């Protein structure tokens, strides 16, 4: 099965964001990955809703919104207003994850949960049937262009096994350090969607790179 590709605009040229979003519109990308940070849950800040409003207006692709913030439930209506397809929250940021997942669904979006590199896949056992997607972080969240953490391939295999065992229909997405080489191994392990920031936007031919990743 060919993977879906969700390029991360964290690595785009923020001074010419429209140009990069238009490139994604022309490309074979399936979604656009949007990383929202708060400087608290992660040691960095990216962009907020006033900027994303314009990205949403320009994008012809579904938005895949990844919130790296504490109390993400406070922003469900803002994410909804962007017209997001998927809203992903961190397991580590939600003591009442089940409630947050229901709230995202009630708002009319697809709920997804993500785990940091140090969080075991087993922690998802009691939420796996309720989510549309699980995102495996293959770097510590907060920055683009980091080195892929090898153990993530094993986590994708474990997650695939958990999904099969529980009869869940959850999709598997992976985020961080994804390129042609790591991407091929992730797809072989069972990944459905690859997020790619640096691999796409630092490439000489970003559209060509998206095409190559889709062929994995
Ligand atoms: C990291 C973000 C990623 C980031 C990935 O905190 O969640 O989505 O943009 O960038 P690359 O693909 O460059 O590792
Ligand atoms: Zn992300």
TrEMBL record:
Catalysed reactions listed for this entry: D-ribulose 5-phosphate = D-xylulose 5-phosphate
Binding, substrate: 8, 66, 142-145, 175-177
Pathway(s) of this molecule: Carbohydrate degradation
GO BP: pentose catabolic process; pentose-phosphate shunt
InterPro entries named among the record's database cross-references: Aldolase_TIM (IPR013785), Ribul_P_3_epim (IPR026019), Ribul_P_3_epim-like (IPR000056), RibuloseP-bd_barrel (IPR011060)
Pfam families: Ribul_P_3_epim (PF00834)
Keywords: Carbohydrate metabolism, Cobalt, Isomerase, Manganese, Metal-binding, Zinc
Coiled coil regions, renumbered to chain: none
Protein name per UniProt: Ribulose-phosphate 3-epimerase
Native species: Bacteroides salyersiae CL02T12C01
Source lineage: Bacteria, Pseudomonadati, Bacteroidota, Bacteroidia, Bacteroidales
């Amino acid at each position: 099965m060919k993977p879906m590709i969700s390029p991360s605009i964290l690595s785009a040229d923020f001074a010419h964001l429209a140009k990069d979003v238009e490139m994604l519109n022309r490309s074979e990308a399936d979604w656009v990955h949007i990383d929202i940070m708060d400087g608290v849950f992660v040691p960095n800040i990216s962009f907020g809703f006033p900027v994303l409003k314009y990205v949403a207006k320009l994008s012809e692709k579904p938005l895949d919104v990844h919130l790296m913030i504490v109390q993400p439930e406070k922003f469900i209506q803002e994410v909804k207003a962007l017209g997001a397809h998927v809203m992903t929250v961190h397991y580590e940021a939600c003591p009442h994850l089940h409630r947050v997942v229901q709230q995202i669904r009630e708002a009319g979006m697809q709920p997804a949960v993500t785990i940091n590199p140090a969080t075991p896949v087993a922690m998802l056992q009691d939420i796996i049937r309720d989510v549309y997607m699980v995102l495996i972080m293959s770097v510590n969240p907060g920055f683009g262009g980091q080195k892929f953490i090898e153990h993530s391939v094993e986590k994708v295999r474990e997650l695939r096994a958990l999904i099969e065992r529980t009869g869940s229909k959850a999709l598997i997405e992976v985020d961080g350090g994804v390129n042609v080489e790591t991407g091929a191994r992730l797809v072989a392990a069972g990944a459905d969607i690859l997020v790619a920031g640096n691999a796409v936007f630092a490439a000489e031919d970003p559209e060509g790179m998206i095409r190559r990743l889709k062929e994995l």
